[in-house]
Amino acid sequence: xxxxxxxxxxxxxxxxxxxxxxxxxxxxxxxxxxxxxxxxxxxxxxxxxxxxxxxxxxxxxxxxxxxxxxxxxxxxxxxxxxxxxxxxxxxxxxxxxxxxxxxxxxxxxxxxxxxxxxxxxxxxxxxxxxxxxxxxxxxxxxxxxxxxxxxxxxxxxxxxxxxxxxxxxxxxxxxxxxxxxxxxxxxxxxxxxxxxxxxxxxxxxxxxxxxxxxxxxxxxxxxxxxxxxxxxxxxxxxxxxxxxxxxxxxxxxxxxxxxxxxxxxxxxxxxxxxxxxxxxxxxxxxxxxxxxxxxxxxxxxxxxxxxxxxxxxxxxxxxxxxxxxxxxxxxxxxxxxxxxxxxxxxxxxxxxxxxxxxxxxxxxxxxxxxxxxxxxxxxxxxxxxxxxxxxxxxxxxxxxxxxxxxxxxxxxxxxxxxxxxxxxxxxxxxxxxxxxxxxxxxxxxxxxxxxxxxxxxxxxxxxxxxxxxxxxxxxxxxxxxxxxxxxxxxxx
Length: 492
Hints:
Elements: E1 2-7, E2 17-21, H1 22-27, E3 35-40, E4 43-52, E5 62-65, H2 67-73, E6 80-86, H3 91-99, H4 106-117, H5 123-136, H6 140-152, E7 164-168, H7 178-187, E8 192-196, H8 206-210, H9 220-230, E9 232-236, H10 244-256, H11 261-274, E10 279-286, H12 295-311, E11 315-322, E12 330-331, H13 333-344, H14 352-368, H15 374-386, H16 389-401, E13 412-417, E14 422-427, H17 429-438, E15 448-451, E16 458-459, E17 464-470, H18 473-485, E18 489-491
Helix pairs in contact: 3-4, 3-5, 4-6, 4-10, 5-10, 6-11, 7-14, 7-16, 9-16, 11-12, 14-15, 17-18
């Protein structure tokens, strides 16, 4: 049946939606949530149906299309499209099987991942997929097959020779080692194309922080050119469609506040595999407010990463680090970028814990190439940083990606004061992250907080613990109200 297009002038952010008037839906025996198949010439797509009771919103004889569908079909207001009914995707049956505890094959996982990547599944169906793995777990075979399916259903970039990469499983505010490690490795002559994510629950992801210095939304062709020229890049992976199903899965995990182990493993390894990384270093921060809460948890996760890496023909090394408190002083995109550049400049006021961790990680990566002993690798990493070579390499990378306009710290500020004296025993990662996000991070680049007192520092009554920065008064007040309940510091 043919319908005339009405442009709804709304984007969904991914999922393909079409709207019919209630009268047309009744005539075709269609219900809200049904799949329909739309065709325009050689272009076609599957949409999820919504129904309008209002003639004003979508009149009979017309079909309301959202931006994603308009783009795929290459149609505009007034165009004619053909509508055909189609049933639920077969992948929904595989999701149901997993809910009942069945181990899924590569073909079944490939079908699910393909439908997630192409926006053929609803949020509810994707949520059930996540829940099925959370309840029943994933075998190593399933994790490997899911990783391969994620890579298959996205873009891939291949680089010649030794390609290094690193990843942190997250949860630690200010842990911006990537932006120090990458220029060190590149200055040593090795290829390290770093595709990073934006923040989901943290005050800043690597891509958010790098965006304060350089452009991160770049085409695959541009990235290849940058890496050929500088040996490295630090870009937003989502812009390149690398393992796109992963980002869509993360979107439904976020409201549930869950991160099933199998999907965490597949997520990380798929993105590394998609850039042809031969040697990958995984950072697992361990602490009460991190993903690996105990040493037992961390060791188990390390074992799983190494197993999956072997099956994917990747040399994987996992280090367990201290995740009990924030790393660095700045929490939020611009503040974290300033910490990174201070370390690269060898500024004596730069956070030394961030510097030491970055050198250790860069040394471990260099050792993985097989060209250096452990001692030689760590000495080389330190020399590259302290000689200024890493800073010059970072400047080359920034120039190649495109230097950003200058960002400024939020003009609305509030000093959080200690009401007791003693020593800082604990800093709660989750509380600190929450305060920074309430202040506007990561959307507002200049928002966040700066830690004046770090773990083990002595504090007097009246000392400033940290300063909150916000770009507007409303968000500053939100952060201040939260601080009244919990400053995030334990002082004894």
